[in-house]
Amino acid sequence: MTTIRDVARISGYSVSTVSRVLNHKNYVSDEVRKNIQKVIAELDYVPNDVARDLSRGRTMNIGVVVPNIDHPYYTDIVRGIMAAAFAAGYNVLMLPSKYDAVVEHGYLDQLRRHAFDGLIFTSHTMPVADMVPYKQYGEVVVCHDPGQIDISAAFTERGPSYRAAFRWVQRRHYRRVGLVLPRDIDISATSSATITAYKDVFGVEPEPSLIRTGVMSYDDGYAAAEYYGTNNLAPDFIFANGDDIAAGVLQYYRDGHLTPPTVMGQENQLSGQLLGIPTIDHHFRDVGAAALRLAIGAAEGQFPVHSDFIPR
Amino acid sequence: MTTIRDVARISGYSVSTVSRVLNHKNYVSDEVRKNIQKVIAELDYVPNDVARDLSRGRTMNIGVVVPNIDHPYYTDIVRGIMAAAFAAGYNVLMLPSKYDAVVEHGYLDQLRRHAFDGLIFTSHTMPVADMVPYKQYGEVVVCHDPGQIDISAAFTERGPSYRAAFRWVQRRHYRRVGLVLPRDIDISATSSATITAYKDVFGVEPEPSLIRTGVMSYDDGYAAAEYYGTNNLAPDFIFANGDDIAAGVLQYYRDGHLTPPTVMGQENQLSGQLLGIPTIDHHFRDVGAAALRLAIGAAEGQFPVHSDFIPR
DNA sequence: TTGTACGCGTTATCAA
DNA sequence: TTGATAACGCGTACAA
């Protein structure tokens, strides 16, 4: 491997002068610069990024914790992160977590070991408060509203669009509203925001028997509908946490030749468009871009992003 | 920042002994190990990954070049890569390319600068032959059949499933088969494999006016169908490069209240399931897993992966 | 079993 | 404007 010392020796100048040429710094005469560049070209020399990172004390890498890449929430948010990272000259490290708190802690430790400069949690199981001590080692960013906890965050403002959606439901006089939610209400910001918006609009708690949690996919949506069906719960409206999930819900009724309730999805996915159901666009790409800017220290604090209810 | 030297100084042992404890090596007495581990715990010391990488000469990072993350081909293949990387203790660096050959070359240069140990091209625009010289700097892996070129590769064997699909078409006596392909035939392995399989089954070249390239998305599929429609090309069957794309094709006819041709998709996506169209499952997760094993040097050579035609 | 000292390749400080 | 040299933090022959 050819090093900066080889270039120095062969060109007849010192490593510091070569380093200055490499980094386009001043205090190098045009002639010397030209000579050194010629040797660099001849030797086909390139600097070693790891040595450079060690010397500079930063990696230009940002870690992104992702429970499962197949969910549209994550692909959208990761797209936004990647685009912003590329523009800023950063590389993105994908860190799969499967919602495992132990694995999540492992990534915080990697941050501490300087494996990357910043860490974005697109979602997580561990308590946000446990992340705070790690801020001293690099930027830590979450992608939901962290409430009172002092941590950088970028997230969609679900309240307004959820309330708009439920007012739409209310105007149509649906009586039995099924809520098909991703994870338990105490750990999922999405789920709790849904419940809160429901209460804001309807003035009452949602019917507990009509709430299904742990629903993340088309198949889960199908199973949730099956649960409603076999237990004779007969919702006349179902609010799902994604268009694909809503598609699974509808398929259950279709397979059983039953009249389906009205359904609403989220994420503005192709399946929702095909089925002609109302949805909510959370603009997750913008959330991702904002999260990255926080992670590289180009911005600070909390970044709420506007979301849109799309009636159909 | 506390370093290994601090641990050595405070514990009263040398850095090499501390290093041995850190790396669970032999030749350390239990008592010394315990003393040192106590100091490590007290100081809350963790080793610096960058320094470790520099010293060891490798990063445990694998770069993955991805033109656009939203396409199902890439999300599936990346999922396979991530799962295998996680299992092997590697981190995955996502490298967006937008099919730009200059950007692709930039990532090969990053490999040369030791930013990662291996590089996987899920797809690319630059010629494969241009990658060969970079093999000296680390593993370079492509995700299509590289033909005679000596480079590691993991890819779906498209031939058998494409031929099975076209035989299905043939048995149904379709006469005017539209081919809706991703990129130009000379740069896309997918496109050329489609043409070859068509010729194998039908014994003739596909009708040039019925071939559309550059079709990557639902919207592109819609536009391709529009092209057929406005030019009175009247295909009676359309072979699309994805179920979502096939959905776009069908939507054009639906919007115009026209009788659609029969369509076939690929990727076994939700949209294809909803529309009840035949498709091809390429098992891209397995391809990704194989690609990673090649990239970390756990395997060598070419890894063809079997794909399945799914009639419906 | 433990310690010394050097190498990894670069950047940054300070002197010349 | 250029150069010598000390960091950066860790791993590892080799010596003891």
UniProtKB/TrEMBL annotation, chains A, B:
HTH lacI-type domain segment(s): 2-56
Pfam families in alphabetical order: LacI, Peripla_BP_1
Keywords from the UniProt entry: DNA-binding, Transcription, Transcription regulation
Entry annotated with the keyword Transcription regulation: yes
SMART domains assigned: HTH_LACI (SM00354)
Transmembrane segment boundaries: none
One example GO MF annotation: transcription cis-regulatory region binding
Signal peptide segment: none
Protein name, as recorded: Transcriptional regulator
